[in-house]
Amino acid sequence: MLNLSRNLKLSIALIVTGCVIHFIGFVSPYWNIIPDTEALESTESAVRLGLWTVCIRRGKKINCVQYDHSLSQSKAAKGLETLSVIFYLLSLLSFWLYLRHPVYGGDILLVCMIFIILIVETTAVGALCWVTMSDIQKRYVLSWAFGLTVGSVIFPVIAGWFVSQERSSFIQQHRRSSLEQPEKKEILLH
């Protein structure tokens, strides 16, 4: 059984939690919703939008279909949020590498911290791109899936702090163990 530090356990749990929450918001068609009063006035209107899906109300029936919005902000938001999911997975991969190759622990944890920073940045900029789509924001209001995706960044932020603590501990232990080893002197034969 692996002997994981408290910092590492918390970091992994936070990244997994953030990834799951982010992914739920990422795939949900509830980034924007149209206010009910406006949807009721039209016999056919889009009532919900997500990054990948638009749900259209036709009479009493709502059909959701895959769509590709032509605005560059929508494409940027999709790309950045997709990168966020990839960075979540890469940070989990870096934890696995850390456990498999502890000799390189300091470097691997540094890479993990970089992935965590990239998660936060790509999620925030992707959300900003989505919010700046003025034609969408005039008719629709932001909904729970958008909030879930944006709010999920709190988990990697906290995980990043624990990873930095783990890295500091690793470096201190590594320095301590290198100081405790006796110096090997070379014997020169003439």
Gap from first CA to last CA: 51 Å
CATH architecture annotation of the domain at 6-28 and 70-174? Up-down Bundle
Number of helices: 7
Task: State the order of secondary-structure elements, H for helix, E for strand.
Answer: HEHEEEHHHEHH
Report the C-alpha radius of gyration, rounded.
24 Å
Helix % is 55-70%
Unreliable stretches, pLDDT < 50, 5 or more residues? none
Overall pLDDT level: 85
Shape: elongated
In terms of DSSP E residues, the strand content is: 5-15%
| DSSP strand tally | 5
Biggest sheet, in brief?
5 strands, antiparallel
- What is the highest CATH level, the class of the domain at 6-28 and 70-174? Mainly Alpha
Structural category: alpha+beta
What fold name goes in the CATH topology slot of the domain at 6-28 and 70-174? Four Helix Bundle (Hemerythrin (Met), subunit A)
Strand order in the sheet with the most strands: 4-3-2-1-5
Please specify the SSE layout and strand pairing.
Blueprint (H helix, E strand, L loop, with lengths): L5 H22 L4 E2 L2 H6 L2 E6 L3 E6 L2 E6 L5 H29 L4 H27 L2 H6 L1 E2 L1 H8 L2 H27 L10
Antiparallel strand pairs: 1-2, 1-5, 2-3, 3-4
Keywords: Membrane, Transmembrane, Transmembrane helix
Main location: membrane
Subcellular location: Membrane
Structure description:
Helix 1 packs antiparallel against helix 7 (154-180) and helix 4 packs antiparallel against helix 7 (154-180). This protein has a five-stranded antiparallel sheet. It has helices at residues 6-27, 36-41, 72-100, 105-131, 134-139, 144-151, 154-180; strands at residues 32-33, 44-49, 53-58, 61-66, 141-142. Helix content is 66%, strand content 12%. It is elongated. It has 190 residues and is an alpha+beta fold. Strand 3 (53-58) and strand 4 form a beta hairpin. It has a domain at 6-28 and 70-174: Four Helix Bundle (Hemerythrin (Met), subunit A) (Up-down Bundle). The protein is built from seven helices and five strands; from the N terminus they run H-E-H-E-E-E-H-H-H-E-H-H.
